[in-house]
Design brief:
Mean pLDDT: 85
Radius of gyration: 20 Å
Oligomer: single chain
Distance between the termini: 14 Å
Number of strands: 4
Strand content: under 5%
Low-confidence stretches: none
Shape: globular
Length: 315
């Protein structure tokens, strides 16, 4: 139980540290010339404050990992259950293939349902943004999989059987995504307490029910599938491939198509407007596509040698 307490203390420090660092990061970025890095700094300067908060939380989570690992006396990834690095390419391809199948099924169904319609000149917008989307998908998938499936799931497996550890990690994975929702600031320039204020006002930014419930369900199912793949292979590569393909497909779909149902809940429970900046589709169609993608991943991993710890924890 002491280890569990340290994990929750770590999560609390991440929230406080990220919230306090976000205003400082905002002011530092605003001081830079906007033309730097080919105009990238200018684009970052135009981001709303809650995006700075989201990135600051991710950086705080990575920085605070080292003292947490030291306090738990964990010196290697093997102690977190990651033993299966002998087939990284094969695991990565399994994740990518299952993810591409899932996203193609989802987006085709969304278009045929009539909930989404293609934008004019969508192909040109997609080609122009493709390098950025590919980079975002790769970086976000690796960072989130290392934090949620590598570290957090690995911590839970120290004192829980894998099914319970998978459930706990999926709940946290689902909840954290709602920290990235926009929340209005009273002032144009954030003060030192603005990050804490945004965290405290997140309840007012949550989507209404039943959209919130469907969004949480989508993230929860995705978290379970990714965690199971990590436990099954003893590696992050399959989960990284699956996660990256989901991000790539959803960001591309946001560029080429738009939700057109009014009111937005009109087609629920079949499908609704995507949440969390359009990255979390909601409804039975997304859930069905996720489950079929996970089922396909299970078939592809059927003959893969099992991780030394699968299906048990370290005990």
């Amino acid at each position: 139980m002491r280890s569990l307490g340290k994990i929750f203390l770590y999560l609390l420090l991440v929230l406080i540290g990220g919230a306090l660092a976000a205003p400082l990061a905002w002011h530092l970025i605003q001081m830079l010339p906007p033309y730097l890095l080919g105009g990238l700094i200018g684009n970052i300067q135009g981001m709303p404050f809650h995006r700075y908060l989201s990135r600051s939380l991710q950086v705080a989570a990575i920085i605070l990992l080292w003292p947490l690992l030291r306090s738990l006396r964990i010196r290697s990834l093997a102690e977190l259950g990651l033993h299966g690095g002998s087939r990284p390419l094969g695991d990565l391809l399994v994740g990518l293939f299952a993810g591409v199948f899932c996203i193609l099924l989802l987006e085709t169904s969304a278009l045929y349902s009539g909930a989404y319609a293609l934008h004019p000149l969508w192909n040109g917008a997609l080609l122009a943004a493709l390098p950025r989307i590919l980079l975002t998908a790769a970086v976000v998938a690796m960072v989130e999989e290392f934090i949620f499936r590598g570290v957090l799931l690995g911590f839970f497996r120290q004192f829980m059987v894998p099914p319970v550890a998978i459930l706990f990690s999926a709940v946290i994975f689902s909840g954290v995504h709602f920290l990235n929702l926009p929340a209005a600031l009273r002032d144009a320039s954030p003060a030192w307490w603005s990050g804490l204020s945004v965290l405290g006002s997140l309840g007012s930014s949550l989507p209404p029910m039943p959209v919130l419930g469907w969004a949480f369900a989508t993230l929860f199912v995705a978290g379970i599938i990714l965690a199971w793949m990590t436990v099954r292979t003893g590696s992050l590569w399959a989960a990284i491939g699956l996660h990256a393909s989901w991000i790539l497909g959803q960001q591309a779909f946001n560029l080429v198509a738009g939700f057109r149902v009014q009111p937005p809940e009109g087609l629920l429970p079949l499908v609704g407007p995507s949440q969390c900046h359009g990255m979390v589709p909601v409804g039975l169609l997304p859930l069905g596509a996720l489950l079929l993608g996970g089922f396909l991943a299970g078939i592809l991993l059927r003959y893969r040698p099992q991780s030394p710890l699968y299906p048990y924890n370290r005990g």
